[in-house]
Every structure is written in C-alpha cells, then in structure tokens.
C-alpha cells in the first residue's frame, strides 16, 4: 500500500508544470507574419510594441503538426485584418524560441 502511494505521489509531481516553463503573456496588435518550412517554427507572428521577454527571438511560432494549427493561424490572420489586439501565451522551447500555447483576440 505504501509503495503505491509513493508511486502515485511521484506521478503527480512529475506531471506538474515546471515554474520555469510557465506561459508568458504577450499583448499587442500584430506587426507581421513569417512562414517557414514545416516543423521549423513554420508560422511565426510578431506583435507591435515592446519586445517579448524570455525568448531568444521576438516572435511566437506554431507548427502545422499541432492539432490547433489551422485554428490559430485563422484567428491570427483575422485579428490582423481587423486590427484587433491579441494576447499570446507562449512558452520558450529547448532552443529558446517562443512556442504559441494559447491565444485570445479582443
């Protein structure tokens, strides 16, 4: 019984998000887009205004292999064409590039 509790506790601890990998919010209007090859930070977005902190480059990216790729790209293109403000929630990847985790348009 005690062994099962220890394993359960370890599983919970190992699946908890790391504070160093917590999402950072970046807010502003879209400045530009850049398209690259698949899985090479394929769709990149840069916001106007202050630079994003915590990332090597001043853009957020998403790759087409991700399930929400079409939704995010559609939302970003629409927000750009309507001059809407967006909130991008990003997490630095292992190379220091900011991966787009979540977003809001308002």
Biggest pleated-sheet summary: 5 strands, mixed, barrel
What is the first-to-last residue Cα distance?
51 Å
Total strand count, please?
A: 5
**Quick one: CATH class?**
Mainly Beta
Which architecture per CATH?
Beta Barrel
Strand content is 25-35%
Spatial strand order of the main sheet: 1-2-3-5-4
Please state the oligomeric state of the protein chains shown. single chain
Radius of gyration: 17 Å
> Averaging pLDDT over every residue, what do you get?
85
Broad structural category: alpha+beta
What does this structure look like?
- The chain is of the alpha+beta class.
- It has two helices and five strands, in the order H-E-E-E-H-E-E.
- It has helices spanning 2-15, 69-81, and strands at residues 24-35, 43-47, 60-62, 85-92, 98-105.
- A five-stranded mixed beta barrel has the order 1-2-3-5-4.
- A hairpin with a 5-residue loop joins strand 4 (85-92) and strand 5.
- The protein is globular and about 55 Å long.
- The termini are far apart.
Q: What's the structural blueprint in terms of helices and strands?
A:
Layout (H helix, E strand, L loop, with lengths): L1 H14 L8 E12 L7 E5 L12 E3 L6 H13 L3 E8 L5 E8 L1
Parallel strand pairs: 3-5
Antiparallel strand pairs: 1-2, 1-4, 2-3, 4-5
